[in-house]
Structures are given as C-alpha cells and as structure tokens.
Design a protein that fits this description.
Blueprint: E1 8-9, H1 19-30, H2 32-43, H3 52-68, E2 72-77, E3 87-92, E4 100-106, E5 127-129, E6 139-140, E7 154-156, H4 164-179, E8 187-193, H5 203-209, E9 218-221, E10 232-235, E11 237-249, E12 255-256, H6 257-260, H7 267-276, H8 299-306, H9 312-319, H10 330-333, E13 338-345, E14 356-357, E15 360-369, H11 375-388, E16 392-394, H12 400-405, E17 409-414, E18 421-422, H13 428-439, E19 445-448, E20 451-454, H14 457-464, E21 469-470, E22 486-488, H15 489-503
Parallel strand pairs: 4-8, 4-9, 9-21, 10-19, 11-20, 16-17
Antiparallel strand pairs: 1-19, 2-3, 3-8, 5-6, 5-7, 7-22, 11-15, 11-17, 11-18, 12-14, 13-15
C-alpha cells in the first residue's frame, strides 16, 4: 500500500505471548535460511502491474509456493476483462472450524526507475544491507548456512515491504503451523491481488465473478507500515485515492528562449502558477469545497487523537525537514483529504537542459480521500478550479481551433479511484483480531481508526459486504513506492508470528 495516527494504546502487559507463537519462533529460527532463500527468489521476479508477462510469473510462483506449503484449491481468479492481472486464491478447510478468515495482500509493485536506486542496489536483484542505506549502511554478502541473520539487517528491492512481505508472511505463517502440527482454529482463505498499485481497477470484477468463493467472517488485510515509533498496529480503515494528470500547452514546437522569451507563454511557468494556486502558505488546499463533505471525527476519536504520542521531532530529524507544511500535528493532517504533486515534467534539466521554451508541461496529482469524500466529486472540484483560473479544460489534445480560441489550455486525464473505508472500532470480529495480534507481541499495540495510506477496501465493503481489518508489518522507513525500498528482517519475523496468532483466533 500510505498514515493517520488516531489510536488507543493497549497496556504493555495484559497479553502474554502464546506457546504456539513461541514454537513458531523456534521453528523460524531453525529455518531462516530456507525462508530468506525462497523470499529472495520471489523478490527477483519483476512485479510492475503493467508488465503482464512478469505478473503472470509472480502469480505462478505464488501458486507453486502455496501448494508446496500444503494449501489446497489453489487457482487464479479473473474478472471479465481479458489480459488483466489475476488474483491468486487458495483455501484450507479445518475440521470442526466454524469461522473463516480471508487473508489479503498484493503481489504487484510500483513502477521503478533503476537509475535512482543507490549504487549497488537494483529493484529486482534483492540485496542484503547491514541497516538502512539512508543512515550509511553497506551492502553485505548473504550469510552462509552456519551464520545467522541479524534481525536489524534489511533486504532491499521492489516489493520487499509493499507488499510481497504480506504475501510471503501469510503463506509461511500457515506453513509453520502445518510443519509443527498445530491446527488453526478457523478455516483460512488466501487472496493475493496483482493490480493494487495500478488502482485495483478490475478488482470489482473478480469479486462479482467469485462472490460465493470469497465469503468469510472477516477479511484481514496486510499492507502498509507499523507506526513510526516501531509499535505494531491494527487499523480499522483506510483513505481513498484517485489521480489526475494535467498538461498545459505552449507553442506547437520548442522555441529558442532568446528569440521568443518574454513573448511566447511558457507552459512550465503557467503550470507552476496553476499548481501553486491550489494551496496556500499554510498548506491548506484552496480549491472550492475541497473539505466540505468530510465527515467529522467522533468525540471518541478526537479524545484518542489527543493522547497519541508525538513522533514529529523524530521525523523532522529523520527526514531532514525543519518546518511541516501545516501547523497541526501529523495525526490531525492525515485525517484530512490531501492534494499532492507526484511529479512535474517539462523539457530537460541538468545535462539535458537547453535554452528553449517547451511545448508542454505535465503534472501528476494524487488525491487522498477521507470518509465523506467521493472520488469523482473530488476530481471535479479540481477541474472546476482549473477552469476558474482561466484555463480551457479539454480531455484530449487541443485542436488548432481550440488553440486559436483560448489563451490557456489544460488537458486533464482522469484515473479511476475509490473512496475511503472505515470499520467500526467496536466490531466484534475486529476486536478478536486485536486480541490475537496482541498475543503475538511482547510490547504494546496500537488501534487506529484510519491509515493514512490507501487500499481498495471500499470495494470490499461494497461488493462483498465485509468490513476488513488491516495489520501492517513493514518498517515505517521502508521507502515504499520509491527508490531503495526495503524490509527490516525482524519485521518479516514479527509478521510471521502475528499471522500465526490470527490463524489461532479464539472467542
């Protein structure tokens, strides 16, 4: 998967680690090399959602791994649109079990630019590092079988944390129980999506086609990071997400900036002004009605939010920033819809810089949504703002007639999106999940109403009539969606134990 930190802290004491978790830990310690070796193989398969051949290779690897670990009814699930990333499904029926948990993670990853990764690192050649490269850690050799893995070491590569870690730990949590002859207390279904990072555009089709197969008492989602303090968390909701691409046009051919500067409008400058008009100096989005339909936090949520330990000073130092965009706390700002510029492109910079007036300038905009927002309505608010700034809005390349008629032209490309989703914090199954996770930990646990990041859980609620619970396992500084993505090895081991505990759910 992206983080709202509204939560309640369970006491450090009150839940002791179960005997089964301790047995699984001993099993893992005896099998670390095999576990890491398999994970490296999985990480070595490119997983960008648009690369359908490699997506199929990932799906095949997952199916084979599931079968090798004793999971049955393994199959690919597709929607009605051909040649789209499939979901991988499997099932374990437990004799006497009356309830079913469906586990979800996604195996696709964000697009990559290998040139931005630190020297020696590559998105699809996993490397072992003795810490965080951002803190000066170095690439090291994979240990031999008579050497152990330091839990503070990290594995670098695309998908290491987002979200192949979820796929791998869920499968191997069951594999560990099976190897130890410990029977789960619930039936288990596995559902691994291959299109989450592309917006889960066809997930609703899969749900509609296989609704009966995907029935369960609760869906447990693995995606996202633990809290910045390192504390584990159970999350009851996620923000929604949608995108827009804006293209502002200049001359029909690039022009010499000396001969035409001061006379021909520069589209990069025009786009910069347009983007700057969308936020004020306080970090507030100035687009009309942007916050109007937000459902306010409840009094209980506000009270919980006020007791959240601060991580702001830690993060400012870690990230190298002095002043946040807004005056509110991180937790408060992540309870609001946001507008982010993912990227801007126009002509060249550095060695590619030339004295030209470019023909166009392009920006990609990311809109995060909270409860009350509708993704199509939120897109339209942005488009109406562009109109109000004097731009003619088109949804295709402008014609000569449109160029002759309008001073400023902005082409808008819409992406699909999905709304935010929240599961009530007093949901009975959700609270049983909380207790199960707490039983796997030797430290406190955070309950959060909403994660700052986005997942298509609105579609789960809409199509399957289920209210999911999310359990993130990745380290907070995992660089998901960016260069140098990584997973701290201890977070993998913690995830294994957490999902074991959920598979041993008690009343």
């Amino acid at each position: 998967m992206q983080k709202i930190f509204l939560f309640l802290l369970l006491p450090v004491i009150g839940f002791s680690q179960s005997a089964s978790v301790l047995k699984v830990r001993a099993y893992r310690q005896s099998n670390e090399h095999e576990l890491i070796s398999d994970y490296r193989q999985f990480l070595g398969i490119p997983n960008v959602a648009s690369d359908i051949d490699n997506i199929q290779r990932n799906a095949t690897w997952i199916m084979n791994h599931m079968r090798a670990k004793g999971i049955t009814q393994v199959q690919l699930l597709n929607g009605i649109t051909p040649n789209k990333p499939p979901a991988v499904y499997g099932e374990v029926v437990v004799p006497g079990a009356k309830e079913t948990i469906v586990f979800y993670a996604h195996y696709d990853g964000q697009p990559v630019d290998s040139s931005k990764w630190q020297t020696g690192l590559h998105p699809f050649r996993p490397q072992l590092v003795n810490g965080s490269v951002d803190m000066g850690a170095q690439i090291i050799e994979w240990p031999s079988k008579n050497q152990s893995y330091n839990p503070e070491w990290r594995i670098y590569g695309r998908g290491t944390s987002d979200d192949k870690a979820g796929v791998y730990t869920i499968i191997n949590a069951y594999a560990a129980l099976r190897a130890l002859n410990i029977q789960p207390t619930v039936n288990i279904k596995f559902f691994f999506e291959g299109e989450e990072e592309a917006g889960s555009t066809h997930l609703h089709e899969i749900f509609e086609q296989h609704k009966k197969l995907l029935e369960g008492d609760v869906w447990v989602i693995c995606d996202g990071p633990v809290h910045q303090s390192g504390t584990k968390q159970v999350v009851f909701g996620v923000r929604g997400d949608t995108h827009l691409e804006l293209t502002v046009f200049g001359p029909k051919r690039p022009l010499h900036s000396g001969h035409y500067g001061n006379w021909v409008p520069n589209p990069a400058m025009e786009l910069s002004r347009l983007l700057a008009s969308m936020k004020n100096d306080k970090g507030e989005v100035t687009i009309k009605g942007f916050y109007d339909d937000v459902i306010p936090l409840s009094e209980a949520e506000k009270k919980a939010l006020s007791s959240v330990p601060s991580v702001e000073e830690q993060l400012k130092k870690e990230l190298g920033i002095r002043k946040p965009e807004r005056t509110e706390s991180l937790n408060e700002t992540l309870n609001l819809p946001s507008l982010n510029i993912n990227g801007i492109q126009s002509a060249g910079v550095g060695k590619q810089s030339a004295n030209v007036i470019p023909t166009k300038a392009i920006a990609s905009i990311d809109l995060r949504l909270v409860a009350g927002n509708d993704w199509e309505r939120q897109q339209q608010k942005v488009i109406d703002h562009i109109n109000s700034m004097g731009f003619f809005v088109t949804y295709s390349e402008p014609t000569d007639q449109e160029r002759a008629t309008h001073d400023r032209i902005c082409m808008v490309k819409k992406s699909d999106g999905y709304n935010a989703q929240k599961t009530p914090m007093d949901n009975v199954m959700a609270q049983r999940i909380v207790k199960a996770v707490a039983s796997a930990l030797s430290s406190r646990l955070i309950e959060m109403p909403t994660l700052g990041g986005s997942l298509p859980l609105f579609i789960f609620e809409q199509k399957l009539k289920t209210q999911p619970v999310t359990i993130p396992i990745a380290n907070h500084d995992n660089n998901q969606h960016a260069e140098n993505e990584n997973i701290r090895i201890q977070n993998l081991w913690d995830g294994l134990e957490i999902f074991v505990s959920v598979m041993l759910l008690h009343k």
